[in-house]
C-alpha cells in the first residue's frame, strides 16, 4: 500500500464510506431531528414561562382611614391586571368577549378599555349585571402606545399579554374555552398577569 508524504496510510476504497454507513446504521438523521425537536420545545417552554420577577401582592379591597380592609363594592367584579414592565408609560388594554366567534377580535369585544398602569398594575370595576353568563378576558401592555399588540417572527407577541384564568398556550393564543369564566354571583376580584 503506498504511503503519502506525511506518513499517513491511504484509506482503502472500503474505508471511505465507513462513516457514512455508520451514520445511516445508527439512524443519525433521525437522532439529529429528535435533538432539534427537543431544543425547539425547550425554547417554546422558556418563551411561554412567566418572568422570574416576584409577584406584588396587593389587596384589592379598599382601605378606610383606620387602615382596615373594607369589603368590595356591591355587585361588581374588579379586574386587576399586573405587569412586570414598571417603567413603561404605555397603557394596559383590556377586552372582554362573550363568544368564541368574537374572541381575539377587539373590535367585536363587549367591553374594551385602556388605563395607564401605576406601580405596575391597573384595576377595572365592572358591574356584574353588564357581563354575560360566560365571558373571557384578554389584556396586553401596549408598551409603545400604538394601539396594537406588536408581533415578531412567527407572529409571536413581543409585548406583555395575558388572559383570564392566566391561560397560556405553547403555540398561539389560548382558546376561548381555556379562558372562559362564569359570571360571579357576588362581588369578586380577579388578577391577570401580563408577561
Automatic annotation (TrEMBL):
Origin: domain of life: Bacteria
Residue ranges crossing the lipid bilayer per the database entry: 28-48
Protein name according to UniProt: DUF2141 domain-containing protein
Listed InterPro entries: DUF2141 (IPR018673)
UniProt keyword annotations, A-Z: Membrane, Transmembrane, Transmembrane helix
Native organism: Stieleria maiorica
Membrane is among the record's keywords: yes
A Pfam family hit: DUF2141
Amino acid at each position: 500500500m503506498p504511503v503519502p508524504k506525511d506518513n499517513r496510510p491511504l484509506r482503502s476504497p472500503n474505508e471511505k464510506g465507513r462513516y457514512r454507513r455508520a451514520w445511516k446504521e445508527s439512524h443519525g438523521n433521525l437522532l439529529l431531528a429528535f435533538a432539534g425537536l427537543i431544543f425547539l420545545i425547550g425554547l417554546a417552554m422558556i418563551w411561554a414561562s412567566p418572568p422570574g420577577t416576584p409577584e406584588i401582592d396587593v389587596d384589592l379591597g379598599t382601605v378606610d382611614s383606620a387602615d382596615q380592609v373594607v369589603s368590595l363594592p356591591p355587585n361588581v367584579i374588579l379586574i386587576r391586571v399586573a405587569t412586570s414592565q414598571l417603567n413603561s408609560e404605555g397603557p394596559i388594554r383590556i377586552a372582554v368577549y362573550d363568544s368564541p366567534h368574537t374572541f381575539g377580535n377587539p373590535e367585536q369585544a363587549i367591553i374594551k378599555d385602556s388605563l395607564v398602569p401605576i406601580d405596575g398594575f391597573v384595576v377595572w370595576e365592572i358591574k356584574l349585571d353588564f357581563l354575560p353568563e360566560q365571558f373571557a378576558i384578554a389584556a396586553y401592555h401596549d408598551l409603545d402606545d400604538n394601539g396594537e399588540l406588536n408581533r415578531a417572527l412567527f407572529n409571536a407577541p413581543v409585548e406583555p399579554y395575558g388572559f383570564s384564568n392566566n391561560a397560556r398556550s405553547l403555540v398561539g393564543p389560548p382558546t376561548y374555552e381555556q379562558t372562559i369564566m362564569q359570571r360571579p354571583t357576588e362581588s369578586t376580584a380577579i388578577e391577570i398577569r401580563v408577561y
